[in-house]
Amino acid sequence: MRGRGSTRTSRPPQPGPRGSAQPPRNDPRRHGRRYPPTRRSRGAAGRIGTLLLIIVLVLLLYGLGALVYASRRITRVPVDGLARGDVYHVLVTGSDSRENLSRRQRRQLNVGGDAGGTRTDTIFVLSVKGTSAAMLAFPRDLFVTRCDGSTGRINGATGIGGESCLVQTVSQLSGLPLRHAVQIDFRGFRDVVNSVGGVELCLDRAINDRDAGIDLPEGCQRLKGVDALGYVRVRKIDDDLERIKRQQQFLQALAGEIATPSTVLNPVRLYSTAGATGDAMRADDGLSSIDLLRLAIGARGMAGGNIVAETVPATPATVGGASVLDISQPAADAVFERFRSGAVFDDASSSGRAVAPEDVEVVVLNGSGVDGLAGQAADQLTALGFTVRDVGNAPATTTSLVRYPPGQEAEARTVAEQAPGGAVDVEEDGGVDDVTLIIGSSS
User: Fold this and answer.
1) SS3 for 135?
2) Which of 348, 318, 343, 314 is nearest to 331 (CA)?
């Protein structure tokens, strides 16, 4: 009951199911409308947005600044034979020269004395398209026609006419237009590895080689500069083709270390790595900071597994009493064409789909001729999380391989990366029902 002169007020809102007040009937919130933010909420949102923008800009500037810093430290030299093409290809080599190393430095790096002349220890073409990358390795013992018309091992081309001769030799052989050429020496490799605190690798067997200066135990470990250099250079434990697989595996692991937040988000470590990388590189005088950015983006894809690693197909041969590798045709031309056309990036994109070991079923077959090897491999894969469906024997083979049915390439690559003995090749095979690891005698 209201007294005279009193005013009528609306009923207080009734509590809802959760105790919150229900809006009045004519409240715009009942009809899906929203109140504009208050001045205070607008200010808070603005400050948060500004803070995020500043963080992004700082990270971007750190990254760009590091690239410029690295670019300024690169030694640049004129290189002939470079060309632009539809696909971005860069020749990357590891120098075997001891020319600028003192005796003490040679002992520290365990690289022995100077054998005379200039040769390349590692040769590969890095092809980049956005965040996808492809790597084509040229075995150092590949028997080819070199830039001056002479025939011999491909790693002798630099002794004939420097980096220009190697560029021309690789281009003539493969038909790939090489846009840039980059060389890394022993000390540079060591310093880059040390700048990221080493690289984590898991070895299925111990490696002891006096010439390479390494004594590495079986199991997972972090390899620092000198041990890492010995690991990618050691030759006595396998052949040139297996050595290339080790190098490709290590480079992908190194790219992963560089791309970790502990490096990228740490200005001190980032600039240390950038400086070490720049000091390690000797490149053609046309390589710019923009080119480094392009390579860095491709390396980021490499770190995430978005890469295809190939080796020029070859078979062992003897020429003039020397052991060499003869190019296998037409297999080599097919590989060259995939790189020339860019079709190799289709493989990189499909291989980038990550699959956890827990989601992969695998069959393990023994083609090594050594009793019990398949069982041991199956136990190791099971410990890593794979489901081993079956264990058996396969026809004798020297090289380990993962075969997979159509549509299971990503699963096969997960097995290949974790296979005992290091990363192995993968091959599609419509004749198998499951991802199948075949263990060869070289494992």
Assistant:
1) strand
2) 314
DSSP assignments along 151-190, one per residue: EEEGGGHHHHHHHHHHHHHHHHHH-PPP-EEEEE-HHHHH
Query: Under the phi-then-psi rule, with left for phi > 0, alpha for psi from -120 to 50, and beta for the rest, what region is 422?
Result: left
Nearest to residue 276, comparing CAs of 342, 344, 339, 192? 192
Q: Classify residue 236 by burial, with Cβ atoms within 10 Å: 0-12, 13-18, 19+.
A: exposed
Whether the Cβ atoms of residue 413 and residue 426 lie closer than 8 Å to each other: yes
**Model confidence band, residue 18 (pLDDT cutoffs 50, 70, 90):** very low
User: Radius of gyration over alpha carbons of the chain, in Å?
Assistant: 29
pTM here is 0.63
Residue 399 DSSP SS3: coil
Q: Are 166 and 157 in contact (CB under 8 A)?
A: yes
Most confident segment among 9-13, 27-31, 296-300, 380-384: 380-384
From CA 172, how far away is CA 176, in angstroms rounded?
Answer: 8
Beta-bridge partners for 203: 219
Partners of residue 90 on adjacent β-strands: 126, 180
Strand order across the beta sheet in which 180-184 lies: 75-77, 281-284, 180-184, 88-95, 120-129, 132-137, 307-311
Q: Please, what are the domains in the chain?
A: 74-344 (3.40.630.190), 357-439 (3.30.70.2390)
